[in-house]
Structure formats: C-alpha cells, structure tokens
Design a protein that fits this description.
This protein is of the alpha/beta class and 178 residues long. 23% of the residues lie in helices and 32% in strands. The chain has a 6-stranded mixed β-sheet with strand order 4-3-2-5-6-7, sandwiched between helices. The chain has a 3-stranded antiparallel β-sheet with strand order 1-9-8. Helix 3 links the parallel strand 2 and strand 3. Helix 2 packs across helix 3. Bound molecules: inosinic acid and magnesium ion (MG). Magnesium ion binds next to loops.
C-alpha cells in the first residue's frame, strides 16, 4: 500500500465536468463584454488561480497578456485582514483592459486591497473574475464581474486551491475539514 492511498481524497463539491463547463461559459461572457478590446491583460493571483487562469485564457478569442501578483495576509486582532503585496505586476497597466483572475473570494480583504491598488495604475477597465465565492464569509464588499460558483462556508481544495500547500493538483474542487 502506498502513502497516497492511505490518505483519502476529499469529497467532491464541484466535479471536473462542472468546472470545465462553467469555465467555457465564463469565457463566452468575457468575450462578449470585451468585443471591442485590442487585448486583455489577465492578472492571476498566485498561487491558487493558476489552474483556473490557464484553462480560462485558452478559451478567450482576443489577444491576451498574462501576468501574476502575489499577496499574503496578516490577520490579527489589531489589523484584521491586512494584506501585503509579495509580488507585484510587471506589465504596465495604464490604458489597458485588465482582468484580475482569482480562485476564491472569502472575506474580501485580498481583492478589496488589490483592486484599490491596481486602480491607481489607471487601466482603461478593471474587472474581477473569480472561480468561487463564499458570500457568508464576506467582511468587505468586492464587486465580482464574472463568477464561477457561489459555495457554502466550507474549506475547499483542488483545482489550484490548497490547504497548507496540499491538494492543489486535485482535478476537481473538494471539501476538507479544517
Ligand atoms: P480573502 O482575503 O479572505 O477573501 O481570502 C482570499 C484568499 O484566502 C484566497 O485567495 C485563498 O488563497 C484563501 N482561501 C479562502 N478560502 C479558502 C478555501 O476554502 N480554500 C483554500 N483557500 C482559501
Ligand atoms: Mg489566493
């Protein structure tokens, strides 16, 4: 018996097929709203959004540039949801159509901070596409322009999402007890 088989896979919340279908629908929505663009800058938030980003951009018909940023969050009683930028975008965003691609919006602090920061760079448009949303956990308002799925307040892994760096490579979204 291998170590892997001793550790049961998390139960399925969203199957590969459900995710694939929804990603295609999101690509159609994005393409329709950006019929006039000369190109989108797609910004993935490391690391969780990577699987979603590569599947989504392959279905977009317009020219796409890709870049990444990374945050970490220092949640404490004195600074709840303080978000720190660990890696900034390298591409210039001024005058560009920018689409931020994120795995999940939970309390909203990460995206509220990031969108505020990116807006200062004066993009022509700035939108958010999130695969998952946990509305019950929201602490600050975040406008989600394109949403894959709303999910209950459970901790999810897979399709890029991790629990302590584990389970990112699951091909589906599953639930773990934390
Ligand atoms: P927020 O700032 O609370 O909205 O948190 C966003 C970040 O928390 C996400 O980008 C994820 O990295 C992480 N996160 C929140 N909920 C989950 C979850 O259920 N599974 C894995 N990561 C999560
Ligand atoms: Mg994340």
């Amino acid at each position: 018996m291998t170590a892997a088989s001793e550790s049961p896979r998390p139960p399925v919340l969203l199957s590969e097929e459900q995710i694939r279908r929804r990603v295609s629908e999101l690509a159609v929505e994005i393409a329709e709203r950006h019929a006039d663009t000369d190109g989108l800058v797609c910004l993935g938030i490391l690391k969780g959004s990577v699987f979603f980003l590569v599947d989504l951009v392959r279905e977009l018909p317009m020219p796409v540039a890709i870049d990444f940023l990374q945050t970490s969050s220092y949640g404490s009683d004195s600074s709840p949801g303080e978000v720190v930028l660990k890696k900034d975008v390298e591409l210039p965003l001024v005058g560009r159509d920018v689409l931020v691609i994120e795995d999940i919006v939970d309390t909203g602090h990460t995206l509220a901070t990031l969108l505020g920061l990116l807006r200062l760079r004066r993009p022509r448009s700035l939108e958010l596409c999130a695969l998952l949303n946990k509305p019950d956990r929201r602490e600050v308002e975040v406008p989600i322009d394109y949403l894959g799925f709303s999910i209950p307040d459970r901790f999810v892994v897979g399709y890029g999402l991790d629990h302590a760096e584990r389970w990112r490579n699951l091909p589906y979204v599953g639930v773990v007890d934390v």
